[in-house]
Amino acid sequence: xxxxxxxxxxxxxxxxxxxxxxxxxxxxxxxxxxxxxxxxxxxxxxxxxxxxxxxxxxxxxxxxxxxxxxxxxxxxxxxxxxxxxxxxxxxxxxxxxxxxxxxxxxx
Length: 107
Prior knowledge:
- This protein has 107 residues and is mostly helical.
- The protein has a domain at 45-107: F1F0 ATP synthase subunit C (F1FO ATP Synthase, Up-down Bundle), CATH 1.20.20.10.
- The protein is built from three helices and no strands.
- The protein starts with a helix and ends with a helix.
């Protein structure tokens, strides 16, 4: 297994192990010493936003890398490749904005 896959598996295990205690918390009462109704479950939207941004950055980075490499190999079709790259990047950005909206409304 590659080092990246191992790290991602470790991150997934840590995040899944944190989800159970967050979901099992008792509701915060006004007399509780916790900070004014703030619980661990409130961080789920923040984790979602972080994952969306990381995924979008990785996707657009890989897209641009592959497009530039293919333009270097075949300069005569660079215009077509650039157009396809811009369309694909716009689709990724659209999905990213939608996912960020969903994460922000989850709070």
